[in-house]
Amino acid sequence: MSSWAARMHRRAATFGNVVTSCGHPSGPYPRRLDKVKFGVPLDEVCKNDIPGPLLVLILKLNKEAPYRKDVFRAPGNQGAMKKLTHFLQTGRLINMDNFSVYTIASVLKKFLRKIPGGVFGKDIENRFFEIITMTDIQQQRDEIHRIIASLPDYTQKLLVLLFGTFRVISANSERAGTGMTSEALGVSVAPSFFHTCVSDGKNAKMEDVMRFKVATRVMKHLIEEFATSDLFGRENYEFYARVTGRVLRVQGEWICSFQYPPAPASEGGKAQVFGNQFGPLDQYLLGFSMEVEKTWLQCECDRWRSKYSLEAMSQVDECQSTPALAESGLTNQAVSSNSLGMIAEHTLLESCTRLSISLEQNGFFQGNNTSRSSSSSRSSKTSHNHSAGKRMTLDELRDVNRYAESTRSLSYLPLVHERQTERMRTRSQWFLAPSVECSSCGGSLDIPLDETDVSVLTNALLRRSSSGTIVGGMGLSMSAESVQKRPSIHRSNSRDKRSYLSRSTSRRGKVNGSRSNSFKGRGERKSSTSKQGSFKLKKNMSSRSCSFKKKTELCSCPPIEAADNCASNVIASTSSGCKPKTDTAKKTETIHVTLTYKPRI
Amino acid sequence: MDGIIRITVVGDGNTGKTCMLYAYKDKKYNDHHSSTVFDSYSMSIEIDGKPRRMILTDTAGQEEYDRIRILAYKECDVFVLCYSVDCRISFLNVRNKWARELMKIKPNCRIILAATKSDLRKIYNGCVSTSEGLRLKKEIRANDFVECSSKLLLNVDIVFQKAVIAAIHPHFVKKTKPKKEECAIL
């Protein structure tokens, strides 16, 4: 490996580029994450969005807590809690595997407890206390919905994640024998949410005990009503389904991942009927799933396939080899459910896929798609590939990036390291292969390989690659650019191709590079599933990227060569030549393929 | 002393405090599973032929409730500090958290250390052993140590008997005080 690195550096030097990984501050792994500060107002913690580590905490609970006894009730290890809190506050990387679910639950409660004024705030807490005494159920629901809708965006998202998790835990309490019913959960978490329970000062009184009991009732009510009525609003449910990868049913309808059910003709009335009818059933959905729902689901499957060209299967295969899935024989379950192509709410196997996907750092979209694509996408996935990239909206893109950022810490898995060594071996083999300089692209290198060879290689390698370890390509190009405004030249490796979906150009300069790399681009995923599709996509995307390069007066490759994995390096430059784009400009969804290669030591 | 003996049961969440109280006052095992916020029971017992009232206070183990728990600390005579045999974390928290909390709010309080769920020893490996419990008892200067099982109604009575004895015998207080002073001088 060292000889390979040395060779790499030598070559890089001949091109007059500073292509060293040591010059890149963040290295292969990002060393800093978003900080999750304790004891500061929520809007400071969630400046843009829920911070990644916090999201990972919740996701881990969402995945594992339903199987474990007394999560949220049983205490966490005090020492481990301190450690985890410290890590969160300083933004250090965390290996979640080292912390038990109990510790994480305790830390999460601590985080909520430390928020000044509480998640809700004093006024809203009091309103909740009033609402809980209401007798008219529908009015009560409306009122709760109004309250939640009045909260800031990040609070809503945080709440929907938390309550969704509570809901999963309570829905499975009986089956998994965890004992965490909604009541037990309510008692355990209520004081973390309701800070006004103890009246001013430290001297608690007997009335406060009563307030605590009311708060418990509020929590219990919210947990039970999470999916039976529209408490959190459509957007939030979609967000929840998207992030956790769970299939969720609200008001007796389906939400397939991030799909809200088609609005029924008479929404209000029907929702009520459904709410009453299915409320108690919804934990055992798969068993009770009716024919109608199934067909509706299949329709949705088709629709979504055409929309997003579900390509998750190969990734799912990969995921099943991850340690996260290996546990408790879930693999079989997952396989069997594949045939159905849908997964009942809270059956939990879906969430496993979810987290392991996040382990793979593939971003949102596979995760979203797995639930539906399981059965259907395998057969017909080539047709829509090339068009799919365009359909991502900017918001989704942002979500992808944020999500990817949030899951980086999970890349510290032994398995990843195993794969990394394997990859390094392949990489060095590739470098030994003859390479030809591409005159037209200003020194970039091109591999003289047949299309078929490349595709075989690409597919073989992509299957194996877990993106966590190839972080850094963009960061490199950024740094190269900042050092000298010359066309930067990178060797490209057929498998280090990462389609970089250009987003917010207003991001902070340095961070930009290190942050944007932690997810697999769509193009890459596409190519891993179907050869034909992958080539179409590549051509498509790289030609687009080339046009962009011309705009920015950077070195450009001929489109056709670029299609064949030549080193086309796109710098999403904001400083050189190209003015920072506005949001509207970004909506044109320029997608850049960075075929960069970054040597790592 | 007004003749009322106040006993407060504390310990981590899910250690079986409520179950133990139920087992003591109803003489049967109650398998219902829910967290306690704050509860108190009153019962009368006979000590030396005289009836005395006893107030048992049940608290929440979750640390969120620490402000409410203080309510039960004020007029308490004896604490029954529980840890669960099958949960090592709860055992460690006795030392790290509970003993400190009790000492801080009520120095020189009388503590009965109770190891609950002792029936689970047969089922799980790696349970907290009796000798570890005894060592912990010395470390936190508890007055007594009992292992009990609410499920089998084993030793539950002894826990509360010892608590009552600790409450009405000033003898225990005297015994611990000089020891502390010696330590301070040394």
TrEMBL record, chain A:
SUPFAM superfamilies on file: GTPase activation domain, GAP (SSF48350)
Region (Disordered): 367-393, 478-536
Biased composition (Low complexity): 369-380
Domain Rho-GAP: 40-230
Domain of life: Eukaryota
One Pfam family linked to the record: RhoGAP
Coiled coil: none
Protein name: Uncharacterized protein LOC108567337 isoform X2
Gene responsible for this protein: LOC108567337
Organism: Nicrophorus vespilloides
Automatic annotation (TrEMBL), chain B:
Keywords of the record: GTP-binding, Nucleotide-binding
Protein name (record): Rac-like GTP-binding protein ARAC9
PROSITE patterns from the UniProt entry: RAB, RAS, RHO
This protein's record includes keyword Nucleotide-binding: yes
Keyword presence, Cell wall biogenesis/degradation: no
Listed PANTHER family: RHO FAMILY GTPASE
